[in-house]
Amino acid sequence: MLLLHAADDLAQLAKAWLDSLRHERRLSPRTLAAYQSDLADFVGFMQEHLAEEVSVASLMALRPADFRAWLAKRHNEGLAKSSTARSMAGVRGFFAWMDKRHGLHNPSLKAIRTASFRRPLPRPLAASQAIAVTEMAGDLGATGWIADRDRAVLVLLYGAGLRIGEAIGLDRRAVGVDPTALVELRVVGKGQKERIVPILPVIAAAIAQYLASCPFVLPADGPLFVGARGGRLQPSLVQAQMRRLRQHLDLPETATPHALRHSFATHLLSAGTDLRAIQELLGHKSLSTTQIYTAVDGSRLQAVFAKAHPRA
Question: Which coarse location class describes where this protein primarily resides (predicted)?
Fold first, then answer.
């Protein structure tokens, strides 16, 4: 059941909202599950708070104090501000959808202000560390074609700024008949949004080496990167290899596959690349998401200054 404590009319609206997020906004299953969980938490609280089965009419009658009671409950449970902000965004989204699609409006929600929080800065690797990861990836643990595969994946993450899900989600046809001639790649990112990313020769060479050594026949509409049994490569295997590299190279705990994407963006920015170009390469919908890397670059400059300046 979608919402355990909801009346039928509310349960039907919640299902329709999630369907719209799935088909119209094309949100990922993980994001949809988070929205559903947040809404279920909110409705479950209101069922106890109001001592009644929660219906659409119940939600329309909520006062600012009712919303604040839910936020206070989350605060008392010790939940992070970022978690509550995300949950509140989901609840606001549901109310906004009801208002737009069905004319169901509750003005009380506008009186609620979620506590602000500072998003943690990305933690990229130094350029030398990122290069060491890509060079060592095929020499640690695995041998043969699996070593070639691991190196190709990690080179792709750092060299093109892909998310791990984007890399392992590629099909064989994406790199063409001759991967050595690959100069750009069509990537499907969040929300099924497509973008074109340029491919460096070192990436093309790594992918070509992997394909040449891979023992499986890879159909055009099948996965590019496969596991030991020929199925699509799972992210846990890439993460495990990164943990081994982290230990071997004495890297911090923040050195994850996603940190290679952060490193890609930060190193481009440090080299003078335009922020909007980086936005396009990363597939960010909003420039404000990309702007967080300016804070990373600035903090690194401050650290260098504090270490090097004679009066620091």
Answer: cytoplasm
Statement: the pTM of the whole predicted model exceeds 0.85:
no
**Residue from 151, 261, 262, 267 carrying the catalytic annotation:** 261
Count of beta carbons in the 10 Å neighbourhood of residue 14: 22
Give the DSSP per-residue string, 9-42.
Answer: HHHHHHHHHHHHHHHTS---HHHHHHHHHHHHHH
Sign of the alpha-carbon dihedral angle for 218, 220, 221, 223: positive
How far apart CA 163 and CA 253 sit, in angstroms, is 18
Residue 293 catalytic? yes
Condensed to tens digits (0 to 9), the pLDDT of residues 52-94 reads 999 999 999 999 999 999 999 998 998 888 888 889 989 999 9
Say which DSSP state 228 is in.
Answer: T
Counting beta carbons within 10 angstroms of the beta carbon of residue 109, is it exposed (0 to 12), middle (13 to 18) or buried (19 or more)? middle
Residue-range domains of the chain with CATH: 8-111 (1.10.150.130), 127-306 (1.10.443.10)
- Predicted pLDDT of residue 58: 94
In the annotation, is 284 catalytic? yes
164 and 157 Cβ atoms separated by less than 8 Å: yes
- Whether 173 is a known active-site residue: answer no
pLDDT of 296 > 70? The answer is no
Catalytic residue among 5, 149, 151, 163: 163
Q: How far apart are CA 189 and CA 156, in angstroms?
A: 15
Q: Which of 190, 232, 244, 248 is catalytic?
A: 190
Indicate if 105 belongs to the active site.
no
Residue 27 makes CB contacts below 8 A (sequence gap 6+) with 21, 35, 191
Least confident of 31-35, 43-47, 235-239, 291-295: 291-295
